[in-house]
Design goal:
The chain is an alpha/beta fold. Helices cover 23% and strands 35% of the residues. The protein has 3 helices and 10 strands; from the N terminus they run E-E-E-E-E-E-E-E-H-E-H-E-H. The longest helix is centred in the last third of the chain and has 16 residues, at 104-119.
Length: 163
């Protein structure tokens, strides 16, 4: 169990309201409370964020890349880590890495990397967003039409097995 600590700041936004001259109390890696600075329990270590605004992180459910990495080109745990770290610098604290339509072997590599990233608890990584290859050609967007195809039973069986 990790020690409780507090981050103090001029303003904290909790998603609904602003709290001035407040403290974010963190216990065992989770936000426990937002308190006035003077209401913090004695002995709790404090880190002062000064005039910074503390706010909840963003959650992004479709991220193709970041930090110079496109997941389709680097479907590895290292690729996932680079993407998560790049987005964290801009306030996204949790995300799903997206693989767009690609060759079956790339999808397998992506799923293997996704499982490994989840197993090690890669910070910020929520899971995979598999986009394609079972799409409408009429609404393909950037997806390679040569790789788009209807779903077959073998595709469904594979996805269910990997879930």
């Amino acid at each position: 169990m990790r020690q409780a600590f507090a981050i103090t700041a001029s303003r904290i936004f909790d998603g609904h309201a602003f709290h001035d001259d407040a403290a974010l109390l963190v216990d065992n890696g989770r936000v426990k409370a937002i308190l006035g600075k003077s209401d913090l329990p004695a002995g709790v270590p404090r880190q002062d964020a000064g005039d910074a605004l503390i706010a909840p992180g963003f959650v992004d459910l479709q991220v193709n890349g970041g930090g110079g990495v496109l997941f389709n080109n680097d479907p590895t745990v290292s690729g996932i880590r680079t993407i998560c770290e790049a987005h964290a610098r801009f306030g996204t604290t949790a995300l799903m890495v997206t693989l767009i339509t690609d060759a079956p072997e790339i999808k397998r590599e992506a799923i293997t990397a996704g499982e490994a990233a989840a197993k090690v608890g890669e910070p910020g990584y929520l899971g995979l967003h598999l986009e394609g290859p079972h799409l409408s050609i009429a609404r393909k967007g950037t997806h390679d039409p040569a790789l788009i195809r209807p779903m077959a039973q073998v595709d469904l069986d594979y996805l269910v097995e990997q879930a």
